[in-house]
């Protein structure tokens, strides 16, 4: 909630790159969760186009592990 919408727009490519990295993926998912849960009215269409395929692939790969929790 500290970044303006314009500042957040410049973060999307960085967050998308971090999602593609196995080591930084989980912290990035947590960061994205915080952004999505923000009370601010943010336009998320730009990031959704790129992140949904990455996240769905991640979920498919880890489906068995996630089901255990």
Automatic annotation (TrEMBL):
<protein>
    <submittedName>
        <fullName>Uncharacterized protein</fullName>
    </submittedName>
</protein>
<keyword id="KW-0833">Ubl conjugation pathway</keyword>
<dbReference type="InterPro" id="IPR039852">
    <property type="entry name" value="CAND1/CAND2"/>
</dbReference>
<keyword id="KW-0677">Repeat</keyword>
<dbReference type="InterPro" id="IPR011989">
    <property type="entry name" value="ARM-like"/>
</dbReference>
<dbReference type="GO" id="GO:0010265">
    <property type="term" value="P:SCF complex assembly"/>
</dbReference>
